[in-house]
Design a protein that fits this description.
Blueprint: E1 2-6, H1 11-17, E2 25-29, H2 39-48, E3 53-56, H3 63-66, H4 70-91, E4 94-100, H5 123-136, E5 143-148, E6 151-152, H6 159-169, E7 173-176, E8 180-181, E9 184-185, H7 186-198, E10 205-207, E11 214-215, H8 216-229, E12 239-242, H9 244-247, H10 273-282
Parallel strand pairs: 1-2, 1-3, 3-4, 4-5, 5-10, 6-9, 7-12
Antiparallel strand pairs: 8-11
This protein binds NADP nicotinamide-adenine-dinucleotide phosphate.
Length: about 280
């Protein structure tokens, strides 16, 4: 089966390219290879490569910059997602699209299920929600949305790699402690995506994260403890918990956006986030 992975240089796309099953022939494309502004150009790529499934990982993911670059965020997260879905719909092929826990506002104190109503607090979340709506509007049962949270990997722009760099450069770190979700390894998410790709009947929406929950502060402390234990960093520095308002971001983020993964666990058993974190730090 020929699978088009859109967003070639992103951390999830890179992981998918390192983990595909034997029966999959992946073709990864970045912004220089596929023009997402037009359904027609996406259709011609589908036809030219005989694509049976598209996995769309491309997104405007910088939550902070999105607040000022609203048009860019909506172009990629809504318009381009809609164009990809329209082209897949015309061709009669399958689509797996990635989405986010930042659709939710954090008013709940228990994990968000796929039945909970999204209410995003920032431009990134709103643009991703509009992207989901553009896909769902087509009412195509071959289309699936997989929401996840706090992705990290050995490559790309992510919290793990930023923390490891700052832990070497600085004498102390201040990290937000009043936002809770679940750090998620792109490796485990990729495994889940390939499981879903193999399923004949798919749900319209899945939630997938690693097991457990954490604040950014707890995530940072674990990164430091594990990296030091494995000899990946040479010193430990004080990590100070702070509030979101003390940090002073432009984008408002939910205080709680943990996703309920109980339905997805029947498809793949999730592992505790600390276990996956250790495996990834070990491989650095
Ligand atoms: N990162 C997270 O913490 C997180 C959390 C929850 C959900 N998600 C979702 O998971 C998916 C994958 O996230 P990720 O962390 O792998 O993202 P990422 O590393 O930021 O990669 C996104 C990719 O999108 C492509 N892209 C960016 N601007 C583009 C443009 N103007 N035109 C075309 N392509 C463009 C780029 O690929 P090319 O350079 O190859 O074009 C980029 O590498 C996204 O849908 C995201 O919303 C992410």
């Amino acid at each position: 089966m020929n699978v088009l992975i859109i967003g070639k240089h992103g951390q999830l796309a890179l992981t998918l390219m390192h983990s595909y099953p034997n029966n999959i022939e992946p073709i990864a494309m970045g912004r220089n290879e596929i023009d997402l502004s037009s359904t027609a150009t996406i259709s011609s790529v589908i036809n030219q490569h005989n694509i049976a499934l598209i996995i769309n990982t491309a997104a405007y993911t910088n939550v902070e910059l999105a607040e000022n670059n609203i048009a860019d965020a909506f172009y990629l997260n809504e318009i381009a997602a809609g164009n990809i879905a329209a082209a897949a719909n015309i061709a009669g092929i399958k689509l797996i699209h990635l989405s986010t826990d930042y659709l939710f506002d954090g008013a709940k104190v228990t994990p968000y299920t796929t039945m909970d109503k999204p209410s995003p607090l920032n431009i990134y979340g709103l643009s991703k929600l509009k992207g989901e709506a553009a896909i769902k509007r087509l009412e195509n049962s071959d289309f699936t949305i997989i929401r996840s949270s706090w992705l990290y990997s050995i490559a790309g722009d992510n919290f793990l790699l930023t923390m490891l760099r700052l832990m070497q450069e600085r004498d102390s770190l201040h990290v937000i402690d009043d936002q809770v979700s679940c750090p998620t390894s792109t490796y485990e998410l990729a495994k889940f995506i390939w499981k879903i790709a193999a399923q004949q009947h798919k749900a319209p929406t899945y939630h997938w994260t690693d097991l457990g929950k954490a604040s950014w502060f707890e995530f940072a402390c674990s990164i430091q403890d594990i990296a030091f234990k494995l000899g990946k960093i040479t010193k430990k520095i004080p990590i100070v918990p702070i509030t979101s308002s003390e940090y002073g971001s432009l984008a408002v983020r939910p205080s709680y956006s943990k996703l309920d993964i109980s339905e997805s666990q029947a498809i793949l058993e999730a592992k505790p986030w600390q276990q996956n974190l250790e495996a990834i730090i070990k491989s650095l």
